[in-house]
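G., the chain you wanted modeled:
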Amino acid sequence: MSADTVLADPIHELSESVIDAVKRVAADEVMPRYLKVAHQRKADGSLFTEADLAAQAALTRRLQSIYPGPVMGEEMTREEQVELWLKGDAGLWCVDPIDGTSNFARRIPHWCISIAFVRDMQTEIGVIYQPPTDEMYAARRGGGATLNGRTMQASGLTDIRQAMIEAGWSSRLPPEPYVAMVDTFYQAGAEVRRLGSGALGLAYVADGRSDGYVELHMNSWDALAGLLLVEEAGGRTCDFLSGDDALREGNAVLGCTPALWELVAGAMKLPIRR
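Predicted structure as tokens:
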């Protein structure tokens, strides 16, 4: 298929191609490395594995064959990300080859591959795949959100005392705001968890498995697919890309069932845009 033909494809056809690409990369590059994983640490202390690098390269090849736009991913240098961001006006792939690398490296099956397609600073496609459970979360703007083809719906919970909120931790910020935020949730009567994958945390909100996901700072490649899932499943989300340089530098993240928005946003003590 020629590039011109690919570019003319509607978004829903593009999303089906992304789902196929993610499944193939998971089967060929990621799962064979899962049970014999060896990990290293980056300069900032965070973990990465051979699987991260192999999956990033394979996803880049496959996604650019679907839509030949730049690919911004976690396993790239900051200089590469800046260059791709500047080129991304016509459409940009935003990729985390393994979100939840610490879990992956410890053989805990709570990790995923996250893909977002961004055009005109708006996420059009979000795909999150959890290979150990074979769960494929997918959304396209205006087309709803699904889990393995089943329509998803946010929980609709209205009572914070019955809520389960996941609060992701960011090492890029001091601990005090995180501790204060979590304390606010506990004081309100909510159950609070941290499972180690922000992308899956948002996907779980979209499927009603939890009632909110918050993180005081999250990178775009971790956040964008999951935020679209929540939005298309009837939840309420922050406008992540409204922040200055948020695509490149990251932003605060909030996705929750609508009735809990004011309390959850208030606990974050940040100017969360809707």
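The mean pLDDT is 88.

Shout if anything looks off.
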